[in-house]
Amino acid sequence: VSFHPLYLVSSTCLGRWDLEVFLVWSCQQDEESFRRAVWEKNLQMIQDHNSQADLGIHTYKLGMNHFGDLINERLDCLLPDMNLATRKNVVTFKSSKNPQIPTEVDWRAKGAVTEVKDQGNCASCWAFSATGALEGMHFKKTGKLVSLSEQNLIDCSEENNGCRGGFMHLAFDTVQKEGGINSEENYPYDGLVIHYSSAAFGLRQQ
């Protein structure tokens, strides 16, 4: 039978502060072991997926990041609750009956897509979706790929809710009203709602 000698120390032999430190230490060891196991499981999942991607089963690859040791329930707790009003009077897009489009297209291969970005602990996916679409549009028109500022939209799109969610069409309305949007370089992302800071536009309305 194996044992850890620290577990045999009686509480009567420890001062109150020492006992509290020991209990915190014990919980930390359990937490570290648990999160290590979660990380190893996620790493194996990533490796299995990427092996299948090499065989053509998937069209994308995965990578480890700083969320790799978290289960979904804990990850959900990191993001704020979204506060979105229900949309009404939605217009359905109707395409032409015989559209002449290719069966597939990879804009990454054409250089029209920026590197993967991290929204952090901010429900700002709406801003990232909007800038991604605008970056691709700008590339198609100019041949230049410019990373645009999600932070600009979070701070200035008044009809959206910053880090508590929003809609892409309202982000586009903001860009149109302001006459452009800042570049990521001039207006970097910090995942907080702050006051607008003017800088050179990365894309101007034309």
TrEMBL record:
Entry-linked InterPro entries:
Papain-like_cys_pep_sf, Peptidase_C1A, Peptidase_C1A_C, Peptidase_C1A_papain-like, Prot_inhib_I29
**GO terms classed as biological process:** proteolysis
What SUPFAM superfamilies does the entry give? Cysteine proteinases (SSF54001)
Where the record annotates domain Peptidase C1A papain C-terminal, the positions are: 101-204
Q: Name one GO molecular function term.
A: cysteine-type peptidase activity
What does the sequence similarity comment in the record state about its family? Belongs to the peptidase C1 family.
Question: What protein is this chain from?
Answer: Cathepsin L
Q: Where is the Cathepsin propeptide inhibitor domain?
A: 22-75
Instruction: Look up and give the organism this protein is from.
Output: Pseudonaja textilis (Eastern brown snake)
Q: Name one Pfam family in it.
A: Peptidase_C1
From which residue to which does any coiled coil extend? none
